[in-house]
Amino acid sequence: MAMNLNDAEQAMLAGKMGPARHQAIAQQIAVGQFFDAEDFVPVTQAHIMADTESLGETGVTFLESLASLPEDQRRISIPTITDPRGADFQSYQRINHDPAYVELERRADRAFRALGVLMTDTCINYQTVMPPVRGEHLAMGDTGVVIYSNSVFGARTNYEGGPSALAAALTGRTPRYGFHLDENRRGTRIFRIKDQPRDWSEWGALGGLIGRRMGSYFEVPVIEGVTQPPTSDDLKHFGAAMASFGSTALFHMIGVTPEAPDTKSIFDGPPPQAEIIGSNAIEAFFGEYAMADDALDVVVFAAPQLSLFELNRLADLLHGKRVHDAVSVIVATSPENKRGAERMGLDDKITNAGAILLEGVCFYQMHARELGEANGWRRLMTNSAKLANIIGGYGYEPVLADMERCIASAVAGRIV
Amino acid sequence: MARTVIQGHPGIGVRVSGPALVAHDNFSARYDLNRIEGVFSRPTHKLYGESYVGKVLVLNIAKGGVATAWMLREMASRNMAPLALLLNWANPIIAQGAAFGAVPLVDRFEADITGLIQTGEDVDIDPSTGRVTLSR
């Protein structure tokens, strides 16, 4: 089905606004037609995932080709920010990150700046940059950001991968399909939780359990039985894991999220039979990441980047302790939170214990396979269900545990 | 020769033909692949260890993160991409990656596509119509 284009969109498609916008809108039309979009919807911000592991030389060269265009042709048209990058320019040597990858990252960074992109380098922009508002149409480029924006704020975005978010940044719009439309935001499944998760790792496990059961991007889980309002960090881990284990972009939590004041109002017609999830399922989920021995190489706190409150808790847990010589502890946060952590003395508590605090990156987005080989990391412990899900494909053996147990293990030099 | 036609939703990309690699499992380029060696690398994936290069990948749904949108083009630039993707359900990331990387993609078939095609079968894919043709 052909999309309806207004005058500005037709001008872009005809190349009257330069090759970058022409290429961008042609690509958006292909995706829009794939999902039967009738037209475009203007968006107020774009968020681009473009670490160089994903880009490769090909992607960086593509960005540089855009950056070489005249300014009026290359500048993005709406506020546009970035997801975590593929290298921490300040600390890459501490983790033996290959300088060739770091140089590739510098080239991508320069190209993005030439386009007018704000290098926020964060996947927690909803906590640190500009939270969206209900009904706001966005082009968000990280699954965790998408699910949080849609669910917790009631904003409207699909998954916009790097090239697509960049296209939205250039055109100022995105095809109107998926979660931009009212009819796709209704609940399709119900999960009733018998036992509320007790910490971030359990919220992540619950998200993973639900995400796994989702049959497509267009399924919308509704969660009942939450007795205490979760925190932003709880929902961050919950949503990020659900999006990672599934392909889920929106959930509703009865009495918590804005589009779900009660069960009846979020379904068209009678609600489906609820699927029950209890603490035994969460325990079994952790059990999937149990190992036969207690060997440990690296402990990672990331995916998503840590909030200031998470850094504060980590600092408290590490204060006065020393990470075992045989183990590395990697912590990833946003540049803004890193500055805050430095100003508030959290950075010292974390790094004095021997942990490495990285900014503007995430562990799995900086050539994790090569980092593992360079540092001898294989057995990885984390409190992030999302990271546990991803990192096995990079040759690691993930162990999922809460933050306290992760720290205790890092200090002991073995899984405790 | 007999032909079996499977109808999907009109897709993205140009018409191609090639051998199928099939599993009732899901797909993410970042989570599941060693893109340097061109094999499935997630130990729990049903195609673990299998080479996907030049194959018509037939899988259930697109899962996981957003990186596939960049990665298909990067893989294609090194001739290390799948020939095409047939999925029961794509998500926006796979569609965006297919459009950006010129990797043919069709989804939303009449029935579970992973049960209709066998590994090794020759498959002809016409994304403009969503039609997939088997030589049987």
Task: Characterise the protein shown here.
The complex is a heterodimer of chains A (about 425) and B (about 140). Chain A is α/β, with parallel strands linked by helices and about 425 residues long. Chain A has helices at about 5-15, 20-35, 50-65, 70-75, 100-115, 125-130, 145-150, 160-170, 200-215, 230-245, 265, 280-285, 310-320, 335-345, 345-350, 370-375, 385-390, 405-410, and strands at about 40, 45-50, 80, 175, 190-195, 220-225, 250-255, 275, 300-305, 330-335, 355-360, 380, 395-400. A 5-stranded parallel beta sheet of chain A has the order 11-10-9-12-13, sandwiched between helices. In chain A, α13 (about 310-320) links the parallel β9 and β10. Chain B is of the alpha/beta class. Chain B has one domain: Phosphohistidine domain (Glucose Oxidase, domain 1), CATH 3.50.30. In chain B, α2 runs parallel beside α3. Chain B starts with a strand and ends with a strand. The relative contact order of chain B is 0.30. Classes of the chains: A alpha/beta (about 425), B alpha/beta (about 140). At the A-B interface, α2, α3, α8 and α10 of A face β2, α1, β4, α2 and α3 of B.
